Description:
Blueprint: H1 2-31, H2 57-72, E1 79-85, E2 90-95, E3 100-105, E4 111-116, H3 118-127, H4 133-168
Antiparallel strand pairs: 1-2, 2-3, 3-4
Amino acid sequence: MLRSYRVxxxxxxxxxxxFLIVSSVTGLLLGWKKxxxxxxxxxxxGATTDLPQWISxxxxxTIAQAALDSAQQLPNTPIxxxxxxxxxxxxxxLFAEGYWEVQLxxxxxxxxxxxxxxxxxxxxxxxxxxxxxxxxxxxxxxxGLGLLALVISGFILWLFPRKVRQLKK
Length: 169
């Protein structure tokens, strides 16, 4: 029985190896995303944190799209979301295509930064959603269950030879 566990453990480990390498490397990169400017642009500071003085989100969206078109010649790129950072006085406008980000001063609408967010595509690679949401669901379940099986079979492979040696003595 112990020999069959070794075989299962070995082939399961080989099968999950590539998923584990990709997940480990991208996980390490994501852990550093706030500290490495190449992974994610540093968050700028706006003029004021007083929300009533801020311009409307519609104006910010228009300014951000114009700024992205001006800087990267990407007209009419759809907006994915706007992230308000009241404590910093800025709004980050994230675009649905190309992983672009425009940071705007909340009160003046001045463009503070136009940059690519590499951390977003790394995150999609990390969780498998870069292929599809269905692949993400299946791959994360396979990876989780596979790791659980590796831990259990590894524990059995570590524990049982000790027990056998004790019984032989």
